[in-house]
């Protein structure tokens, strides 16, 4: 990975992570981006459940497991890490996916997804145009259940709702759906393949709405978000595309079970990144809550919310740092920290299932930085895991 002054986003995928050398602001003060009648009380009068999770001094958290995809061209695999009591990671095993990666960046979020009950894991094989499913054992290891064609070219992101999964293919600009049997075998859903808004749309992520009735796909190259209705049989209908509030919509996560929190990379321009909160995600009719809220960083791409959706963390790949926002009851975003230091080229980020620790893949450094959440949206470093595959992508957590 080479350092340059800006980040380019190709139409189909990001081929390299390019780092900026711009100076850091070291902002440590809550920045209320616009006047509002809503109280910016991050503790919610002591009732913020994401803050309450940090008040337990015993630190006896469930160890849990973190999964990372190697994305290696010859033999894609999942790296299984055990999360230790202090939040550091120990490599436990490496499991083949039965497919191939690409050996380069995918420009995506969501290459790995786990079921809500933490019993199943799904991942894309972008180099062999397939999707793999795994049974998660009690020890955190994985048993391959099946591999199926992705219904297109270069799958980059996968999502699951109950027993239905969907994948988005960046090379063919389409989505495809599957029904998952009790043994983890995936069967294509007839009529589920639908096209994105344009050829070369540059999809980054696909995800179900909380109620499972809609699919959302961010499109980097078109500056749009595609929305597909899903019927009771799991069949996606024709999509519609809405303009993104903010340039280069990339990764996203769902907060408070009703808001879509989307990063806007702004083509990697220095200081131009923003984050947008959208409401209406369970109706398929979304609107931004308080615009594109800036963090004054470069290439804000990956997003992870805390368990109860009060805080979101965003990695800024070209600024080598992380931003945090508070998500108010109405969905309004408030910037807290603009530039928490990370490793070189931070990309994928996940909040562990214990809601205490946060793990960030530094793609340029080939490391994972682990943090303990602190009060009011902060992060305190606890360790670094090194020696990762050069093209590693996708990160997920289970108990």
Offer a few descriptive terms.
mainly beta; globular; Methylamine Dehydrogenase, Chain H; five-stranded antiparallel sheet; disordered N terminus; 399 residues; four-stranded antiparallel sheet
Architecture per CATH nomenclature, i.e. the level-2 architecture: 7 Propeller
CATH class: Mainly Beta
Q: What fold name goes in the CATH topology slot?
A: Methylamine Dehydrogenase, Chain H
Structural class computed from helices and strand pairing: mainly beta
Count the beta strands.
29
What string, H for helix and E for strand, traces the elements in order?
A: HEEEEEEEEEEEEEEEEEEEEEEEEEEEEE
Overview of the molecule:
The chain has 399 residues and is mostly beta strands. The protein has one helix at residues 49-52, and strands spanning 65-69, 77-83, 89-96, 112-114, 120-125, 130-136, 142-149, 155-161, 164-169, 174-180, 186-188, 194-195, 203-208, 214-219, 224-229, 240-243, 249-255, 259-264, 274-279, 287-294, 300-305, 311-316, 321-327, 333-341, 346-351, 357-362, 367-374, 378-385, 393-398. The chain is globular, with a radius of gyration of 19 Å. The two termini are 33 Å apart.
